[in-house]
Write a sequence for this structure.
C-alpha cells in the first residue's frame, strides 16, 4: 500500500469512528450503546492492522489483535451478560437530555479539529484527520461518562474514551511502546471487572442501582 | 545491590499479599501485615542510604532519585503506622461487626496490593508505567473504599472509580501528547522515560507540551484531589475503613502530586517555568478557597478531614506555583508534614468514632474525660493541621508563604492567608467541642495499645519536624528541590 491509500483508509475509519461515537451518545437503550462501542473497537483494530501492514511494525499487529479480542469481543460480551443478569429495568438515564449531549458532542468535535490544527507541527505517522478524531473520541467518551447516571452507560463511555486515546497514540507516534499499550489494556480490563463486580454488589447488598445512590452530599 | 532493591521493593508487599492467602486467622494476618510493612521500611532505608551517597539509581523502567525518595519515605513510614494501627482497629471492628471475620483475608491482600501499586507509581521512571500503576491504585483502592459494603460506602466507591478514571484518561492523553513531542525529537525508543525526556526537554515543541501538561494536570490533579476535580475525595476518604483513609489521604494523593511534579519539570524545561507555575497556582488557590466553606459547615468528622486534604493539596500546589527553591522546598516538606499529620488525624478520629459509635461531631463530646491519650493526640493533630506553631505544618506553610512574598504575588497571598485563618478558627472550634466538655454516649473503656503506638509514632515525627528537620532528610529535600528547580 502506498502512503496515500493508507491515509485515505485511516481517514475513512476516522469518520466511521466518529459515527459510532454519535451512535453511543444518541443511544437510548443500553444494548445499542454496547453494540456501537464494540463496532468502534473493531474499527480501531482495523486501523491498527492497516497501519501495521503499511509500516511493517509488528507491535501494531499485536495491539490490533488484543484490541479486537478484548475490546471488540470480550468486554461487550461481559456487558451484555451483566445487562441480562441484572434484568436491567432502566435504560440510559441521561442527566441532561440526549439532544443537548449531542450538541455538546458536536462542539467537542469542532473544538478538537481546532485544537489539533494548533499542534500540527509535530511529526505524525499519518497526517490528515486522525489526531482530531482521536481527541474528539476521548473527550466525547468523557462527556458520556459525565452525563449518564447508569453504571453500564458510564462504562461504555470509559471504553470509548480509551479507544480515542489508542487512536491518538497510533496517529501521532505509531502507537506507544507495546508493553505500555498492553499494560493500559490490562488496566481497562481490571477496571471493567471491578466496576462490574460493584454493580452486581450494589444490586445484591442494598437492592439498588448505582444511579439511585445519591445520598453523599456536602 | 541498590539496583536490584528497586525491583524488590514493589515485590515485598506483593509477596506479603500472596503469603496472606494461606491463612484466615486474624492474628496471623496482622502479624504478616506488620512484618511486611517493617521489611518494606527497612529495605527503603537501605536504599535511601545508597541514593543519598551515590545519587539516583535506575534499573529498567524503575528509578529512584531524591525526589522519589521523599515520597517513598513518607509511604513506608505511614504504611508501618497503618499496619500497627490496624491490629487494634480490626479487633474492635470485628467485635462490633463492622468487618466480617471471614473476609479479613481479602482486606489485607487488597491493602498490600494497593501499597505495591503506590510503590510502583513512586519508582516509575517510564511515564507509561507511572500511568498504569496509578490506574492500578484506583482499582485496588476502589474495592477497599466500598469494603464495609453498606450503601454509602458503595456509593463513594463508585463515584471514586468513575471520577478518577475519567480524570486519569486525561492524564494518559496528556502523556501520549508529551510522548509524541519527545518521540519527535529523539525518535521512538526511550521517549517515554522521564530521564530521557528531561535530557531533551528544552528542545520539545512548546505548543504540544503546553496542551499535554494541561491534560496531565487535570488528569493527575483529579487523583490528587485538586479542586474543582475533587468531588470524589470527601466521599471516598470519609467512607473508607480508617486505615485505608489514612493511606488515601496520607500517601495516594501525594503520589499523584509526584506525577504532577514530574510533568511540571518537563513543562518548565520545554516552555519556561512561568507557564507551569501559573497553572499550579490557579489550581492551588481554587482548592484552598473551595475547601474552606465545607470545612466550616461540616458535621461529619471524617468528611471534615477529607475536605481538609483538598485544602492541603491546594497548599502544596501553591508552593509549587510560587516556585523557586523556597516554594518547592516548602511544597515537598508540606507533602511529608501533611501526610504524617493527616494519617494521625484519621487514626485519632477513627478511634473516637469507634468509641462513640457515631461520626457526627455533635455527638462526640468530652473525649478527654473518657480517653485522655486519644483525645490529646486528636487535639495535637488538629492544632497541627490548623497550622499552629511549633508543629510541622506551620513550618511548611510559612515557607510557601515566604516564597509567595518573594515573588510579590500579593493577591494570591492575601486569599491564602484569609482562608488559612478562617480554617484555623473553624478547625479549632470543631476539635475543641469534641475534646472538651461533658462526656456522653461513651464509657471509659481502656484505650487499645496498638492504635496508640501508631499514633505516638506519627505524633513524634510531627513534633520533631516542627522543631527541627533532621540533617539527613534536609539533604534529601534539598537535592529533590534541585531536581525540580534545576
Amino acid at each position: 500500500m502506498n502512503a496515500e491509500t493508507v491515509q485515505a483508509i485511516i481517514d475513512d475509519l476516522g469518520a466511521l469512528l466518529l459515527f459510532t461515537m454519535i451512535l453511543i451518545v444518541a443511544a437510548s437503550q443500553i444494548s445499542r450503546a454496547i453494540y456501537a462501542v464494540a463496532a468502534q473497537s473493531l474499527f480501531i483494530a482495523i486501523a491498527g492492522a492497516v497501519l501495521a501492514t503499511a509500516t511493517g511494525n509488528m507491535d501494531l499487529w499485536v495491539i490490533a489483535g488484543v484490541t479486537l479480542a478484548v475490546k471488540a469481543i470480550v468486554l461487550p460480551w461481559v456487558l451484555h451478560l451483566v445487562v441480562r443478569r441484572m434484568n436491567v429495568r432502566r435504560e440510559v438515564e441521561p442527566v441532561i437530555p440526549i439532544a443537548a449531549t449531542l450538541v455538546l458532542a458536536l462542539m467537542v468535535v469542532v473544538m478538537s479539529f481546532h485544537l489539533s490544527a494548533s499542534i500540527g507541527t509535530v511529526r505524525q505517522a499519518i497526517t490528515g484527520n486522525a489526531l482530531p478524531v482521536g481527541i474528539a473520541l476521548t473527550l466525547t467518551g468523557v462527556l458520556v461518562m459525565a452525563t449518564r447516571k447508569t453504571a453500564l452507560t458510564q462504562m461504555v463511555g470509559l471504553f470509548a474514551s480509551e479507544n480515542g486515546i489508542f487512536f491518538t497514540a497510533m496517529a501521532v507516534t505509531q502507537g506507544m511502546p507495546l508493553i505500555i499499550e498492553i499494560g493500559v489494556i490490562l488496566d481497562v480490563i481490571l477496571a471493567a471487572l471491578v466496576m462490574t463486580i460493584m454493580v452486581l454488589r450494589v444490586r445484591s447488598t442494598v437492592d439498588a442501582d448505582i444511579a439511585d445512590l445519591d445520598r453523599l452530599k456536602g | 545491590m541498590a539496583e536490584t532493591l528497586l525491583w524488590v521493593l514493589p515485590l515485598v508487599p506483593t509477596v506479603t499479599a500472596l503469603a496472606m492467602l494461606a491463612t484466615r486467622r486474624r492474628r496471623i494476618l496482622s502479624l504478616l501485615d506488620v512484618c511486611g510493612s517493617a521489611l518494606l521500611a527497612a529495605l527503603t532505608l537501605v536504599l535511601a542510604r545508597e541514593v543519598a551517597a551515590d545519587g539516583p539509581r535506575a534499573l529498567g523502567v524503575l528509578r529512584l532519585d531524591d525526589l522519589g525518595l521523599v515520597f517513598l519515605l513518607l509511604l513506608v513510614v505511614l504504611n508501618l503506622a497503618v499496619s500497627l494501627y490496624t491490629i487494634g482497629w480490626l479487633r474492635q471492628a470485628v467485635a462490633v461487626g463492622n468487618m466480617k471475620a471471614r473476609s479479613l483475608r481479602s482486606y489485607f491482600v487488597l491493602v498490600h496490593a494497593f501499597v505495591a501499586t503506590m510503590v510502583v507509581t513512586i519508582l516509575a521512571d517510564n511515564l507509561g508505567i507511572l500511568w498504569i500503576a496509578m490506574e492500578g491504585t484506583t482499582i485496588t483502592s476502589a474495592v477497599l473504599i466500598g469494603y464495609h459494603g453498606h450503601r454509602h460506602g458503595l456509593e463513594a466507591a463508585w463515584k471514586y472509580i468513575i471520577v478518577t478514571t475519567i480524570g486519569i484518561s486525561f492524564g494518559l492523553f496528556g502523556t501520549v501528547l508529551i510522548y509524541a513531542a519527545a518521540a519527535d525529537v529523539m525518535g521512538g525508543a526511550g521517549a517515554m522515560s522521564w530521564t530521557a525526556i528531561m535530557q531533551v526537554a528544552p528542545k520539545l515543541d512548546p505548543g504540544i507540551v503546553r496542551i499535554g501538561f494541561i491534560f496531565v494536570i487535570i488528569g493527575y490533579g483529579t487523583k490528587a484531589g485538586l479542586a474543582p476535580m475533587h468531588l470524589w475525595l470527601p466521599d471516598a476518604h470519609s467512607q473508607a475503613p480508617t486505615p485505608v483513609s489514612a493511606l488515601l489521604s496520607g500517601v495516594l494523593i501525594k503520589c499523584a502530586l509526584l506525577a504532577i511534579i514530574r510533568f511540571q519539570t518537563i513543562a518548565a524545561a520545554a516552555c519556561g517555568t512561568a507557564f507551569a507555575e501559573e497553572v499550579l497556582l490557579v489550581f492551588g488557590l481554587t482548592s484552598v478557597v473551595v475547601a474552606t466553606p465545607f470545612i466550616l459547615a461540616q458535621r461529619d468528622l471524617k468528611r471534615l478531614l477529607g475536605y481538609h486534604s483538598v485544602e492541603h493539596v491546594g497548599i502544596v500546589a501553591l508552593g509549587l506555583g510560587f516556585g523557586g527553591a523556597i516554594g518547592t522546598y516548602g511544597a515537598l516538606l508540606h507533602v511529608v508534614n501533611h501526610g504524617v499529620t493527616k494519617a494521625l488525624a484519621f487514626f485519632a478520629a477513627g478511634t473516637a468514632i469507634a468509641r462513640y459509635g457515631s461520626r457526627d461531631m455533635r455527638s462526640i463530646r468530652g473525649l478527654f474525660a473518657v480517653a485522655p491519650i486519644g483525645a490529646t493526640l486528636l487535639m495535637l493533630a488538629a492544632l497541627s493541621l490548623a497550622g499552629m506553631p511549633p508543629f510541622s505544618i506551620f513550618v511548611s506553610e510559612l515557607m510557601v508563604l515566604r516564597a509567595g512574598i518573594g515573588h510579590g504575588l500579593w493577591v494570591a497571598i492575601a486569599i491564602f492567608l484569609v482562608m488559612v485563618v478562617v480554617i484555623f478558627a473553624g478547625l479549632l472550634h470543631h476539635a475543641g467541642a469534641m475534646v472538651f466538655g461533658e462526656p456522653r454516649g461513651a464509657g471509659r473503656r481502656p484505650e487499645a495499645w496498638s492504635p496508640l503506638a501508631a499514633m505516638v509514632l506519627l505524633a513524634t515525627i510531627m513534633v520533631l519536624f516542627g522543631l527541627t528537620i533532621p540533617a539527613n532528610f534536609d539533604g534529601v529535600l534539598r537535592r529533590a528541590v534541585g531536581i525540580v528547580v534545576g
Observations:
- The helical segments of chain A are 3-26, 30-55, 58-86, 98-118, 130-147, 151-173, 178-206.
- Chain A touches chain B through 49 residues (CB under 8 Å).
